[in-house]
């Protein structure tokens, strides 16, 4: 007889549905942004508003959702925007205005700022409503590189990294398909 695992599977989506994550997002006036109580990530914003950084992290996760990645990876991906905003006033304006536009679209649909919308599907609907804006296109394009170019993320997906410095993939598992036998 086949046994069925009846335990509740905790996923990021289920966790967010519970609303617990929304209560844990904190933006401090000092410019430090953190997720509490787990302390999953923290950063200091010098040029962008802390609320902007929180929204960018939430947006990055919604654009590229991976249950196996913690918030820290997304925070690390958006953190360079703060430094670049200090060097480039046009970029700072694009990001700050873009977040205001995102929050405005979210307020119109769900009566709350984007980062406070609990349901992932609702946030995705808001993102779809602004997908033709330069802000959306900038963040979407930058996150492909910023998120997936982190060696710590590679480990999560089973990517062993570059093989060029080791002579290429031909002699390093190119024809290794043991994983297929176990599928």
Report on this structure.
This is Twin-arginine translocation signal domain-containing protein. This protein is mainly alpha-helical and 183 residues long. The chain has one domain (12-159). The chain has helices at 12-17, 20-24, 50-63, 71-78, 80-87, 89-110, 120-129, 134-148, 151-157, 178-181, and strands spanning 25-27, 32-35, 42-44. A 3-stranded antiparallel β-sheet has the order 1-2-3. The longest helix has 22 residues, at 89-110. Residues 17-31 and 35-40 have low confidence and may be disordered.
Mean pLDDT across all residues, rounded? 80
Oligomer: single chain
- The percent range for strand residues is 5-15%
Distance between the termini: 22 Å
What's the SSE pattern? HHEEEHHHHHHHH
How many individual β-strands? 3
Helix content: 40-55%
Overall shape: it is elongated
Low-confidence segments, given as residue ranges, are 17-31, 35-40
Could you give a short description of this structure?
The protein has helices spanning 12-17, 20-24, 50-63, 71-78, 80-87, 89-110, 120-129, 134-148, 151-157, 178-181; strands at 25-27, 32-35, 42-44. It is mostly helical and 183 residues long.
List the helices and strands and how they pair.
Blueprint: H1 12-17, H2 20-24, E1 25-27, E2 32-35, E3 42-44, H3 50-63, H4 71-78, H5 80-87, H6 89-110, H7 120-129, H8 134-148, H9 151-157, H10 178-181
Antiparallel strand pairs: 1-2, 2-3
Protein name: Twin-arginine translocation signal domain-containing protein
Organism: Skermanella cutis
């Amino acid at each position: 007889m086949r046994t069925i695992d009846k335990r509740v599977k905790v996923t990021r989506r289920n966790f967010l549905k519970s609303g617990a994550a929304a209560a844990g997002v904190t933006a401090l006036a000092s410019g430090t942004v953190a997720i509490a109580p787990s302390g999953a990530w923290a950063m200091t914003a010098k040029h962008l508003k802390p609320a902007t950084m929180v929204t960018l992290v939430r947006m990055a996760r919604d654009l590229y959702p991976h249950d196996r990645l913690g918030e820290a990876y997304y925070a690390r991906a958006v953190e360079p925007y703060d430094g670049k905003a200090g060097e480039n006033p046009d970029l700072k304006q694009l990001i700050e205005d873009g977040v205001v536009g995102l929050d405005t679209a979210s307020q119109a649909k769900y009566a709350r700022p984007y980062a406070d919308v609990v349901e992932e599907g609702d946030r995705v609907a808001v993102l779809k409503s602004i997908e033709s804006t330069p802000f959306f296109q900038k963040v979407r394009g930058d996150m492909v590189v910023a998120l997936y170019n982190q060696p710590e993320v590679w480990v999560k997906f089973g990517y062993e990294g570059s093989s060029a410095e080791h002579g290429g993939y031909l002699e390093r598992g190119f024809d290794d398909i043991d994983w297929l036998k176990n599928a």
